[in-house]
Amino acid sequence: MTQPGTRAHDFFAPDDADPEVVAADEATKDVFAPTEYPDGLTSTIPPMTNLITAPVFVVNGSSDRLSCGPGYSACANTETLYATEAPFFGLAARLRTFVLPGSGHSVNLARNTADYQAAVVEWANSIVK
Length: 129
Hints:
32% of the residues lie in helices and 8% in strands. The chain is mainly alpha-helical. The termini are far apart.
């Protein structure tokens, strides 16, 4: 669980934070899932993501402080995110990526989340046989 009053900084881009959404997020925050720990928070074991055989769609906001590295360099654009993530997935994952411009970590709560949602629908439609 995050410290009180830190969610705006950690999960939202400075120019993209609706104060009412940030307040609601702060009021309903939760801890991360234990399954996130092995790949997301350690670098001493081989990534479990290499074992994924289902299609994968990785999404980040271009200003994601938690996932994009110094200066958000890994999330400069969709192609850069792909280049950063591809080594962690096998060919069976059919990796696709998307970067939501101007968003922080909480892409579902970004002002332009409709662009992210449209990308998810397009990706989902592309993998249906």
